[in-house]
């Protein structure tokens, strides 16, 4: 596309501009009459400099630069500013004017499209109905998440709510942080906060997505929000277990909590999923995966930060283990001779 | 607390001595004399000079603090509101976008942490910025009417004051034992109760105070972690 209609660039031309601005410069063959008096509708692209800003990204920069240069001119640096403008942007005189208009219009249209897309996709109001809860409801759901259901023959109701799960994930982050701080965990690549947030949110979002994908494969009746909600409330057991065992350090206590509390919340999730799936194989796949991931996550959270605590406790209270000491070894005469011989042999070969 | 919604601080300007200093005693509440300028609005620019266009002459310029919108008396009144979580709050408190008080409290928190040997200004800044963004998103999702970033930042900043008390205690004794933990939990509860009280009264979310108090408690718990460890 060799021609740009400057005067009509506000409509279709400008809309096509951003898409074609890139390759537009590459294959120009047409030579058009150069613009005269600023009223011509045609720009000779061939005679434009390489820096004429034909890519969309450059438009924004050009626009910004033009604005700044206009301000500079207003302050009385007209001569130097225009010269710089002309040389730098590669547009000379009247062609520069037209180029500026076109660039400006393309920028405006691009900006409008971007803001429309942003307001469409980044609108958090679509999440509004999932946060409409009462404290009583949240408390009831928290307690329910520890009670496995018995009726698996017809689909169990899952509350599609995101407030409880989100708060539980943040609570888990806080408990992890507290545990890391009390055990003086040092994270070399990253920060404590980043690690904790990454671990918890990664688990919640990642495993939910994975389970939703598996549920889609196994033909289970569950939506993404319900899956997020189910797994989020399942983290309540994790929060309780970790809160207790980060403060009271007994391995056996942790294993009891892991089995009982972790097991109860896993059983609840599994039962709900089973009630919504048809077919033995599919039920087995879904529930096995979820149970394994959920229980293993609790195990991981405990042991990733527990070792350090144990180590400190041992040094503080356990038998006195002296720090590692370097002791000079006496090298016997025999080995000395061997060393010298070896050194000579190597020297000869080199 | 009686509030004057008239935005005209002319009487305030007349009472000012020529030097521009504030005289707090003149601003005490009395039933007959209403507050000049709303306590909840940062002092707006004086009406008279703005009608004349830009002021000419040094003598006619408004005092610096008034021009900046910093009113120490208002800040003090708002602080007192925040410090008493049991007193029911006024709904119009959400109109405020005064960030001077919060800024002072954040700096005080950083300074008291510095006195305890921890240089954590960056952490305080980062955590308050991210906390404000998160609370703003959550409150917009949970309430029928929206809030602005300034209001959220202002309320959260004012409710940070008890945390400054905790970090001053950390200067005197280590908080890593049981009494320190109990004190920290008490202060977290105090901060989050104040903040949730203000948010619920302003956004008409009566039954949901606990639901808002919990995320506030998590945020202030982070500050407490910073102070204790």
TrEMBL record, chain A:
Q: What name has this protein been given in UniProt? A: Protein YIPF3
- Give the GO terms filed under biological process for this record: cell differentiation
Compositionally biased region (Gly residues): 8-25
Q: Where is the composition biased (Acidic residues)?
A: 69-87
**Role this protein plays:** Involved in the maintenance of the Golgi structure. May play a role in hematopoiesis.
Q: Which UniProt keywords apply?
A: Cell membrane, Cytoplasm, Differentiation, Glycoprotein, Golgi apparatus, Membrane, Transmembrane, Transmembrane helix
Q: Which PANTHER family match?
A: NATURAL KILLER CELL-SPECIFIC ANTIGEN KLIP1, PROTEIN YIPF3
GO CC list: Golgi apparatus; plasma membrane
**Which protein family is named in the record?**
Belongs to the YIP1 family.
Q: Which residues lie within the region annotated Disordered? A: 1-88
| Record-annotated membrane-spanning stretches | 162-180, 192-218, 230-249, 255-275, 284-305
Q: Does the keyword Membrane apply?
A: yes
UniProtKB/TrEMBL annotation, chain B:
Q: Which residues form the Yip1 domain?
A: 84-225
| InterPro entries in alphabetical order | Yip1/4-like, Yip1_dom
The principal localisation class reads Golgi
Q: What is this protein called?
A: Protein YIPF
Pfam families on file: Yip1 (PF04893)
Protein family = Belongs to the YIP1 family.
Question: Which domain of life, per UniProt?
Answer: Eukaryota
Q: Where in the cell is it found?
A: Golgi apparatus membrane; Membrane
Native organism taxonomy: Eukaryota, Metazoa, Chordata, Craniata, Vertebrata
Write the record's keywords in alphabetical order, separated by commas: Membrane, Transmembrane, Transmembrane helix
The Gene Ontology CC terms held by the record are:
Golgi membrane; trans-Golgi network
Q: Does the keyword Transmembrane helix apply?
A: yes
Q: Which GO terms describe its biological process?
A: endoplasmic reticulum to Golgi vesicle-mediated transport; vesicle fusion with Golgi apparatus
User: Membrane-crossing residues?
Assistant: 123-143, 155-175, 181-199, 211-228
How does the record say this protein sits in the membrane?
A: Multi-pass membrane protein
